[in-house]
Amino acid sequence: MSHRPVLTTTAGSPVPDNQNSRSAGPRGPLLLENYQLLEKLAHQNRERIPERVVHAKGSGAYGTFTVTRDISRYSRARLFSGIGKQTEVLARFSTVAGERGAADAERDVRGFALKFYTEEGNWDLVGNNTPVFFIRDPMKFPDFIRTQKRHPRTNLRSATAMWDFWSLSPESLHQVAILFSDRGLPQGHRFMNGYGSHTFSFWNDAGERFWVKFHFKTQQGHRFWTNAEGNAVIAQDRESAQRDLYEAIERGEFPRWTVHVQIMPELEAETTSYNPFDLTKVWPHKDYPLMEVGVLELNRNPAHYFAEIEQASFSPSNIVPGIGFSPDKVLQGRLFAYADAHRYRVGTHYEALPVNRPHAASVHTYHADGAMRFDAPRGTDAYYEPNSFGGPVEDRSAAEPPLRISGDAAWYDHRAGNDDYSQPAALFRMFDAGQRARFFANIAAAMQGVPREIVERQLAHFAKADPAWAEGVRAALEAASAGAPSYLKEGVE
Ligand code: NDP
Ligand code: HEM
């Protein structure tokens, strides 16, 4: 036993007894001077940090991104500089609505967050397993999320709130269609695609800008659970996706995704029939074909879940020269939300933690002090800027090319004149008979207990996309209602 390290307090002094508290006599009471006990209990009280306000339940792993096609004519980002180039990546997959202890095999959108540790700083692509989203204006995000979380009085999830919001927000229809399709309940994180979802931009050395969408196609194939299978999985294992990912990597079966981009020349955005910056729309492949650019492989499990995954802090605002944003309003809103969340959830210096700091670039800022500053910049007189003492200075070459924008400042109605139906209809028409049957049943199951007028309002949206969609759901609702227990019938929740 002598080779084992001696247990110490946080100050490094040896702990004489880690089995028994120090007491006055064998029966107690305990002595306040037993600071080892106090420290142990106090630390336990501080073991948790606030869970993410969304995407609280997640799994993560490290890996590599390898370039397979030279796209330096589109982007000057060094991570794309040459075939074979490899960049370290951290991935975190998640469900959206459930809390930190939620079961994995629940029908929900999956988060697909990536941190590329590039030599020009960290690039975070904080996407989902869906190419679109429920809203197209960030003003609606807190409202939307409220409908996914618990009702303030009952503390239960509310199907009424979900369908009320969706039926009053037709822009959600495309994402609703994906959620209730087979892809809404993947068997695990390895068996789904990832999407950057938003339109981003690329810019090259010549100062030309292109709009870009990112797609990560699973090489493991798509696998899904039906609702019944998902329920059976949860009865046995609430951590099915975490277990699947962790164990596959331990076995050496490294999951891979083929990485594609769609590219749109800058000025073409003014001519497409749809707004290419609308997060509820895809760019049809026939107009903007997928171009393969690389492979993502996950090949290393984190050594410590809390330190490396719970504290992982992804933000769409982390970009590198050669990659930029777009006018997408939801993306613009997200540029604020994430770092703000991290400062609250993890702390002021979240970005200096080993998992969050750049691994291939160095950091030089003038940010000062704050709670838990744990690095100590080498004694310098350059603690403000400009200075005469050799402190870091800006690099104009990192500035993206100017972006031409115009328009009067106003609250524009994002719902006016927008086609919310053609793209969901195109998806619906791709489903075969089996997919349609499961799709109708999944929607009907999720509508149980929702007041009739809300159901009818939503059915009208389905009908506008495709009458067969509304008819299928109506038939599934009747079938579900015939067999449903009374507490699930209309208006009772
Ligand atoms: P395509 O026929 O070229 O592409 C169809 C796409 O649908 C494929 O990317 C396929 O993914 C994906 N898909 C298949 N089943 C589902 C599902 N249940 N949920 C989500 N995606 C699914 O057609 P278009 O590009 O013209 O798009 C038609 C519709 O396909 C769109 O309205 C949209 O709903 C959906 N889609 C389109 C994407 C795009 O970027 N254009 C991306 C994803 C979906 P895979 O190849 O991995 O099987
Ligand atoms: C997590 C806000 C839309 C994907 C989060 C978090 C916040 C947030 C505050 C928690 C961050 C943390 O504590 O670390 C928002 C807002 C949105 C929005 C305000 C819209 C206005 C989206 C969209 C996507 C997305 C459109 C995908 C395309 C994710 C993912 C995570 C996340 C994947 C989890 C990241 C991780 O694994 O740590 N979001 N979000 N979000 N969001 Fe969003």
UniProtKB/TrEMBL annotation:
Where composition is biased (Polar residues), the residues are 7-23
Keyword list, A-Z: Heme, Hydrogen peroxide, Iron, Metal-binding, Oxidoreductase, Peroxidase
Q: Which InterPro entries match?
A: Catalase, Catalase_3, Catalase_clade1/3, Catalase_core, Catalase_haem_BS, Catalase_immune_responsive, Catalase_sf
Q: Which cofactor does it need?
A: heme
User: What Enzyme Commission number(s) appear in the record?
Assistant: 1.11.1.6
Question: Which SMART domains does UniProt cross-reference here?
Answer: Catalase
Which residues belong to any copy of the Catalase core domain? 8-393
Ranges for the region named Disordered are 1-28
This entry's Gene Ontology molecular function terms read: catalase activity
Reaction it catalyzes:
2 H2O2 = O2 + 2 H2O
Cross-referenced PROSITE patterns, in alphabetical order?
A: CATALASE_1, CATALASE_3
Family per record: Belongs to the catalase family.
Q: What does this protein do?
A: Decomposes hydrogen peroxide into water and oxygen; serves to protect cells from the toxic effects of hydrogen peroxide.
Put simply, this protein is called catalase
* Source organism (scientific name): Nguyenibacter vanlangensis
In the record, what lineage is assigned to the organism producing the protein? Answer: Bacteria, Pseudomonadati, Pseudomonadota, Alphaproteobacteria, Acetobacterales
